[in-house]
Amino acid sequence: ADIAPTILGILGIDGPKMSGSSLLGLNAVRPLYAETMYPRIQLGWSELTSVIEYPHQLIESPRPELYDLSQDPGEKNDLAATERRKAASMRKWLEGQQTPLRPLEEVDAETAAKLTALGYIGSPATRGGANLPNPRDAIQLLPQMQEAFKLHAEGRQTAALAALKKMTAEHPEMIELWVKLGEVYEAVGMFRESAGAYQEAIRRTPVFAPEYVFSAGEVLIKGGDLAKAGQHATLLMKEQPANGHELRARIALARNDLKNAEAEAQLSIDSARKFEPKRQILMAEVLQRQGRLGETLRVLDSTEAKAKSERQGAVYRLDFLRGDTLARMNRFEEAQAGYRREIASFPANGQAYANLAVLYMIGGRPRDAEKVFEDLVAANPSEVNYLLAVRTFEAVEDLAGAQEWRRRMQQHRRTGA
To answer: Which runs of consecutive H residues, i.e. helices, occur in 12-53?
Structure first.
């Protein structure tokens, strides 16, 4: 609110009446309020609020802190114990600004019933309440968390899993650890465990978190638990209908119910607040499964054009689906080009490498197929990708190739290289 008035003040321009005021001469402005709910919602720690009445800043937390910014801009000398009167008056002002989080138990009755049916309400103790950790005291855990996240980003999933399992055991209140654990389990194909981690995050977060519900639904589908995935889709219909319909479309695809899959994919597109290419990609996937290959290509082309017009960049799985569709039309050179574009844009999409390798094998180019998998494990050195190479060679009945990649996988296990 203060940014525009400040810029106008610097430029010496009289502007319209605004709710904010110029920050020039900070000691002359009204009290400045700040809050962060991130530690409460994502980490299970206390939220933080603060007020600056220059030169003083009060930070409200399980252990309130008061600083004189004119003398101590680095906030090293806490005055809360020595300037109690000042701290008390600032705290009184702060109490009038704070809006407490709405507890998960206070969602509407319909959503509460669905959450209860899935086991997400009924154990509020897991979500903390009183005596939450003070972020100032717990912040030393963040480098440890960041290191685990880095292991995942580098493809070192075994090490990432070990680090995250240890941290969730020691600090189960840190919701973001459960979410990352779900991602890592999903990356290595352990979908049941992934769903369990996302469900733990849902149980522990103090607010309704539809993004976690959606992630849980996705891995439940991959793990074959379509009934429970359907319950998660229903839970999303009120707040995020586009994602709810997306889950329902994917459930229908898993059941080979292509008519309902198409209807739900269209509802996902129609109920989205803005253009999201992933919804058109889902529709293209449904059309391809129905054998409507020309329509599939048209949807992919229009989606690509729309994404470019909105400067959204490359679209995940668009060129993969284009390559797959062209391969089904026996347009193999164009299919190979599609897979190569997908790999160039999204080098972590292992299935694009695998499909490209299969086309090379069919075309009598075994060395090129081998090189594709060498590129995959160089870019993404995880055991999952070694196993993908093994299964791909097995699928084309190249048992010698499969055995060689199994040997490489075992060596990777032992040495990490």
So the answer is: 38-43
